[in-house]
C-alpha cells in the first residue's frame, strides 16, 4: 500500500489561525501543517479537509480515483465542500467492515473519545491503523489483534494509545509509527522529533508519500537514559514523558513516605496523579535486583534520594565513620549500582538532581553530599546511551 499524507496537522492546522503562542509563531515552512487527511492507493480518502484536492495535486496525486471517503472525527466549523467527482463522505459504525472493489478492507475501530479509527488491509495483506485526533482504541484484548505494519496516530497528545497498542501486540518492533494531528503542544522541528523518537515514532512533512512495509530509519528508543535537572526544572515530567507510550512501566520511588511531612506527601501525590493507570509503583532503594531482572521499562525517581539513603546507611555524615570505612563502603555501593546499569536488559530511565552548579554548601556534610552526587551522576551517565539536562522545562541532550 501507498499512503500520501495530504496534511499531518490538527483539525485547525498548524499554526492555528490567530494563535499567538510560541509554537505557532515558529510553525512556518516545512513545519507548517494542514489538517490531517490520508490518501491510500489513490482509492480511499480518510478525512476530507479544506483544500484536499489542491494538497493532492501539490503531492503529485489526484483525487479522481477515490471511491470511498471516510471521516474519523466530528468536524467543527463550516461544512467542508466536497470536490466534484468525490463520493459523499461518511463514517462507519464501530466494528463494521467495508470491502472495496479495489480489494481493500476497512474496519471501523471503537475509540475512547468521539471519533472512529480505521484499520485498513490492502490487497497485498498489509495492515494500517489510522486513529482520529485525541483518540485511543477502546476494548483491546491481549493477543486479539495482529501487529500492524503502520500506525498513524495522535502520538503527542495520546501517547497512552501507543502504550495500549503495544500492550496487546498491535504495535511491534517493526511497526512504523507516524505522528499525525500534530498541534501546538510541542515546539515544531527538533523538539518535536526528539519527543517522537523517545516514543518510537516519527513525523513527516505534508505531502509525503509512504510505502507500507518499507524500512524507515527511525531512531531506536534509548535503553538507558539519565535525566538531570535542578529543583522544579521539569526533570521528572521529562522522564515520565519518555515512557508514556509504553505499557506496564515500573515506577521506582526512592523517597519513601516520610510520615508526617505534608509537603512531601503533596509532592508524592502530584507525581502519582501524572502517572498512567497501567504503571506499577515500588517504593524502594534496593535498585540492583530490579536492574538485574528482565521485565517492563523501569523509571527510577530519583538517584539523589538513593544516595541520601546510602549515605545514611554508611554513616557518611559523621567524619569519623566516613574515614573509618564509610567512604569505601559508599564507593562499593555506587560501583555495584553502575555495574547493574551496565548489565541491564530492560529499558531504564533514571532521574537525578544536578546540584553542582549552585552555591557552595555551608556545611561539611552538605559539601560531601554535593561531591558524592556529582560522582554518582558521572558514573551513572557513563553507562547510559542518552543523558539529558533539563533547564526551565527545556531538555538539552548531552549524549545520544
Question: What's this model, at a glance?
Answer:
By secondary structure, the chain is of the alpha/beta class. It has helices at residues 22-25, 52-58, 159-167, 190-198, 235-241, 262-274, 287-292, 303-313, 319-343, 364-381; strands at 2-7, 37-40, 44-46, 68-70, 97-99, 105-110, 116-121, 127-130, 150-153, 176-179, 209-211, 224-229, 250-253, 280-283, 298-301, 348-353, 386-391, 394-399.
Describe this protein's structure.
The protein is 27% helix and 20% strand. By secondary structure, the protein is α/β, with parallel strands linked by helices. Helix 8 (303-313) crosses helix 10 (364-381). The longest helix has 25 residues, at 319-343. It is elongated. The two termini are 34 Å apart. The mean pLDDT is 91.
Features of the shown structure:
400 residues, 10 helices, elongated, 27% helix, six-stranded mixed sheet, seven-stranded mixed sheet, 20% strand, alpha/beta
Give the helix/strand layout.
Elements lengths: L1 E6 L14 H4 L11 E4 L3 E3 L5 H7 L9 E3 L26 E3 L5 E6 L5 E6 L5 E4 L19 E4 L5 H9 L8 E4 L10 H9 L10 E3 L12 E6 L5 H7 L8 E4 L8 H13 L5 E4 L3 H6 L5 E4 L1 H11 L5 H25 L4 E6 L10 H18 L4 E6 L2 E6 L1
Parallel strand pairs: 3-4, 8-9, 9-10, 12-16, 12-17, 13-14, 13-15, 15-16
Antiparallel strand pairs: 1-2, 1-11, 2-3, 5-6, 6-7, 7-8, 17-18
Helix pairs in contact: 8-10
Strands in their spatial order, largest beta sheet: 14-13-15-16-12-17-18
Whole-number average pLDDT?
91
Q: How far do the termini sit from each other?
A: 34 Å
Shape: elongated
Structural class comes to alpha/beta
Stretches with pLDDT under 50, minimum 5 residues: none
Strand content of the residues, in percent? Answer: 15-25%
The count of β-strands is 18
Element order, helices and strands?
EHEEHEEEEEEHEHEEHEHEHEHHEHEE
- The percent range for helix content is 25-40%
Q: What about the largest sheet?
A: 7 strands, mixed
By DSSP (H or I, 4+ residues per run), the number of helices equals: 10
Radius of gyration over all CA atoms, rounded? 25 Å
Amino acid at each position: 500500500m501507498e499512503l500520501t499524507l495530504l496534511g499531518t496537522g490538527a483539525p485547525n492546522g498548524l499554526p492555528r489561525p490567530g494563535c499567538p503562542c510560541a509554537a505557532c509563531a515558529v510553525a512556518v515552512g516545512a513545519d507548517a501543517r494542514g489538517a490531517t487527511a490520508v490518501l491510500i492507493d489513490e482509492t480511499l480518502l480518510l478525512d476530507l479537509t479544506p483544500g484536499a484536492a489542491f494538497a493532492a495535486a501539490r503531492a503529485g496525486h489526484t483525487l479522481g480515483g477515490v471511491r470511498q471517503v471516510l471521516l474519523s472525527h466530528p468536524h467543527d466549523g463550516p461544512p467542508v465542500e466536497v470536490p466534484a467527482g468525490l463520493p459523499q463522505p461518511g463514517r462507519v459504525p464501530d466494528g463494521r467492515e467495508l470491502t472495496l472493489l479495489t480489494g481493500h478492507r476497512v474496519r471501523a475501530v471503537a475509540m475512547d473519545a468521539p471519533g472512529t479509527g480505521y484499520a485498513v488491509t490492502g490487497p497485498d495483506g498489509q495492515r494500517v491503523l489510522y486513529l482520529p485526533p485525541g483518540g485511543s482504541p477502546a476494548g483491546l484484548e491481549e493477543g486479539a489483534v495482529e501487529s500492524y505494519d503502520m500506525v498513524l496516530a495522535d502520538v503527542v497528545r495520546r501517547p497512552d494509545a501507543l502504550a495500549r497498542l503495544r500492550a496487546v501486540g498491535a504495535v511491534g518492533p517493526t511497526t512504523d509509527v507516524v505522528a499525525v494531528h500534530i498541534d501546538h503542544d510541542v515546539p515544531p522541528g527538533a523538539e518535536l522529533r526528539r519527543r517522537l523518537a523517545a516514543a518510537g515514532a516519527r513525523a513527516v512533512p505534508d505531502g509525503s508519500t509512504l510505502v507500507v512495509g518499507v524500512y524507515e530509519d527511525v531512531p531506536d528508543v534509548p535503553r538507558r537514559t539519565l535525566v538531570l535537572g535542578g529543583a522544579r526544572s521539569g526533570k521528572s515530567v521529562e522522564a515520565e514523558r519518555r515512557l508514556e507510550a509504553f505499557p506496564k512501566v515500573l515506577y521506582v520511588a526512592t523517597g519513601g513516605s516520610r510520615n508526617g511531612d505534608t509537603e512531601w506527601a503533596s509532592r508524592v501525590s502530584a507525581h502519582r496523579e501524572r502517572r498512567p493507570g497501567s504503571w506499577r509503583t515500588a517504593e524502594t532503594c534496593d535498585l540492583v535486583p530490579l536492574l538485574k531482572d528482565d521485565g517492563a521499562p523501569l523509571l527510577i525517581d530519583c538517584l539523589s534520594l538513593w544516595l541520601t539513603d546510602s549515605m545514611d546507611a554508611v554513616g557518611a555524615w559523621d567524619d569519623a565513620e566516613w574515614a573509618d570505612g564509610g567512604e569505601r563502603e559508599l564507593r562499593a555501593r555506587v560501583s555495584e549500582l553502575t555495574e547493574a546499569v551496565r548489565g541491564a536488559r530492560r529499558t531504564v530511565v533514571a532521574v537525578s538532581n544536578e546540584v553542582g552548579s549552585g552555591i557552595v554548601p555551608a556545611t561539611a556534610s552538605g559539601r560531601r553530599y554535593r561531591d558524592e552526587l556529582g560522582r554518582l551522576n558521572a558514573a551513572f551517565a557513563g553507562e547510559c546511551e542518552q543523558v539529558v539536562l533539563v533547564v526551565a522545562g527545556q531538555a538539552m541532550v548531552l549524549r545520544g
